[in-house]
Every structure is written in structure tokens, then in C-alpha cells.
Design brief:
alpha+beta; five-stranded mixed beta barrel; three-stranded mixed sheet; globular
Length: 257
């Protein structure tokens, strides 16, 4: 009987340890970030943005597909004209949550472009090596170890990593010209671990499960009006910006009453 109790206690402690370790999962464990790109909130850099697209309504209108996909490769990373990083990934579609034109099938391999990602610092340094911007401002000119990385996250999106699976909003806005689908979810990009979701620049575990998020996505996309498809991306942003400005003005007037 005593041996059975000992075995039971040992098994109980093992299970606690296992669950604790799982709960403590971090997408960026053991990574030392020496440089951060992007911003958490675009209002920090634009006092009066034309349109706030970092919300479910705008993202739904601007997205042509929503998928769960595994990132199988980082095809390339580039430095754009203002010194920010941009990434091109190969993604394999695992599940289709929305497809406006019904062109995707499970198992398809697509190229996804995104401003969200992580690079070893020495690889980033090599990218910036001949950049006039980097030399002028001293960007990535130091000495870095194998544990040093750079992280790129705009609008508090979770940085993408090869080998991970994501719930991802996509737009085909650039497909005709570049043959890529652009990741479009901003802070609504989610890393999926079984039924658990992680989000944000720091990869924090969310309170919403994957199954519940699928239901939310279904409702969002069912409410999609197709207005951006009808009038075009730029015209939709102008229209959205004007509506949001009117709403802010109305709210300010109500607060002053």
C-alpha cells in the first residue's frame, strides 16, 4: 500500500511539472533581442492616422482569406527604404476559415509577406551591411553572439517564426504584381499551439482558445460587407478614416456636454 501511495504521489508531481512546463511555453525562449523594429501602437508615430485598420471590422473587410497555416521556410528577408525589415515566408495551409474566391485547398503552399519576424542578429547585420541608412545611424554595426536576435513587430503583432503554426488573415492585394499574399491581421495574428493561442510582440498566452477564435472569425467574416472589394483598398481607407474621424468628433462633443 505504501509503495502504491509513493507511486501515486510521484505520478501526481510529474503531471504537475508537465502541465507547468507546458503553461510556461514561450515562443521566444532563450532569445536575446538586441534590436526591436516596428511599434506597438501606430498612434505613437501618427497623431492623426488616415484610418485605424487595427480592428476586426477593418481587417475583415481588407482580407481575402483567413487560414491556419504552418510556416515551413523563410524565403528571404529584406531591408526596405526606411530601414525596416520585411519577410517572405513559405506557408502550408492546414485549415481554411474563409476564402472569398474559393481558390485555396488544404495542403496548398503559398508565399506570405509580412513585416513580422525574427532574425539572428548576425544575419540582420549582413542585410544592413551595405545600407547607407544603417551606416549613417549605426544600425546593426556591433558584434553579436549566436543567442542574439532582432525582432520585428508592427501594431503589436506576434513575430512569425519558421516551424510554428498561425491563424493568419491574408490579403491578395499584391498577388497580381508580386505573387504573394500579404499577412494582414496586425495584433490579430495568432500563434497556435494545439488549442492555445499566443499573441502580441511578447507572445503572451491569450484567454481565448483556438476553437472559440474560429467561431469569432466565422462571425467576423460573415459580417464582411465587401466594401473594400467594391471601391478599392485606397478608397476604402479614405472612407473608413472619414467615418472614424466623425465618430471621434461625436464622442468628443458628447464628453464636453
Amino acid at each position: 500500500m505504501r509503495n502504491k501511495k509513493i507511486r501515486f504521489v510521484a505520478l501526481f508531481l510529474f503531471l504537475i511539472t508537465f502541465v507547468s512546463c507546458f503553461d510556461a511555453y514561450s515562443p521566444f525562449a532563450e532569445m536575446n533581442f538586441v534590436k526591436e523594429y516596428g511599434w506597438t501602437d501606430s498612434s505613437q508615430i501618427m497623431a492623426s492616422p488616415i484610418a485605424d485598420t487595427n480592428n476586426p471590422e477593418a481587417i475583415a473587410e481588407l482580407s481575402s482569406q483567413v487560414v491556419i497555416c504552418e510556416i515551413s521556410a523563410l524565403d528571404r528577408a529584406i531591408v526596405n527604404g526606411i530601414g525596416d525589415l520585411h519577410f517572405y515566408y513559405t506557408a502550408t495551409i492546414k485549415e481554411i476559415l474563409y476564402d472569398r474566391d474559393l481558390i485555396f485547398t488544404v495542403g496548398d503552399s503559398i508565399t506570405v509577406s509580412s513585416s513580422e519576424g525574427i532574425l539572428p542578429a548576425n544575419e540582420a547585420k549582413a542585410l544592413y551591411h551595405d545600407s547607407a541608412y544603417a551606416k549613417k545611424y549605426g544600425v546593426m554595426q556591433g558584434e553579436y553572439s549566436a543567442d542574439d536576435y532582432v525582432r520585428s513587430s508592427f501594431d503589436n503583432a506576434i513575430p512569425i517564426q519558421v516551424g510554428e503554426t498561425y491563424l493568419m488573415y491574408l490579403t491578395d492585394r499584391y498577388f497580381a504584381r508580386e505573387k504573394v499574399y500579404a499577412e494582414n491581421g496586425q495584433q490579430y495574428l495568432y500563434l497556435c499551439k494545439d488549442n492555445t493561442l499566443y499573441a502580441g510582440r511578447e507572445g503572451i498566452k491569450t484567454d481565448v482558445t483556438l476553437e472559440k477564435m474560429k467561431m469569432q472569425v466565422s462571425k467576423q467574416m460573415a459580417a464582411r460587407t465587401g466594401r473594400a472589394d467594391e471601391i478599392g483598398h485606397s478608397a476604402y481607407l479614405n472612407e473608413l478614416g472619414k467615418r472614424q474621424a466623425e465618430e471621434r468628433l461625436q464622442q468628443a462633443n458628447q464628453n464636453s456636454d
